[in-house]
Phosphate transport system permease protein PstA
Amino acid sequence: MSTVKVNHKARKRAKATDKVATVLIVTFAMAIVAILIGLLGFILFRGLGHISWSFLTTVPQTMRAGGGIGPQLFNSLFLLFLTMLITVPLGLGAGIYMSEYAKPGKLTNFIRLVVEVLSSFPSIVIGLFGLLLIVNTFNLGFSLLSGALALTIFNLPLMVRITEQAFAGVPKEQKEAGLALGLSKWKIITSIMLPVAIPSLITGTILASGRVFGEAAALLFTAGMSTPPLDFSNWNPLSPRSPINPLRPAETLAVYIWKVNSEGIAPDATQIAAGASAVLVIMVLIFNLLARFLGRTLYRYMTASRRMN
């Protein structure tokens, strides 16, 4: 009798604990969603009214009202392209090596430790390192390429860790099936493991891209705080006025927002900063949606899920 009562009390206590834990988890989740919606709503409410085609395509004004963000918007997108062009292959290669080729041991553990330490470095430190090494020692000057290399240092640990975890998360049975069919290790990686890992890799790419869009501190010391007059009819990458010249200085949208907020003297500096912030948020949201759509399409195309649907 006493044993039945004890079991009944234990079940009631477990149910009560489960209810409390569920309420806490749901509360925390809703709080995060509310903070995110509030933040997005505040930025978009302040900035959407200032966005127009003229605002997106014209050059900024220092003293007069009515300036735009055209060059800064293009610089942000081009810098994202350059950074991901360097970061993704390096991150994928290093992550695949750490997951599939590196032998467990002190050396591998040390490399993982270095990657984790590097990922925790403040962006301002990465910027100063880029100023000393990339800008001055390599003599690349304040340029898009210097900024892309600094952001690669910033984002590479994230891509390596996510790639390693994505490949480590592939079911062991799928890898063993490839070995049983006599496939080479590289064939197993590219044909079996890579398609399964694609959703996680897309997530890592989105996270890295978001840091590129929003980064300002590291770019102050590498990409610079100015943009030369751009000629969008000149697509010679060696021309100083060409938009696609990677060796020209480039002020990105995040840097411009910081500069306008801190030292802007235009009469509508506050509205410009609010509009530019809204554009930056919208860019990140659109990029996330496009990247997720591309990831789902690639996953369906490269795996059997396409035939099952």
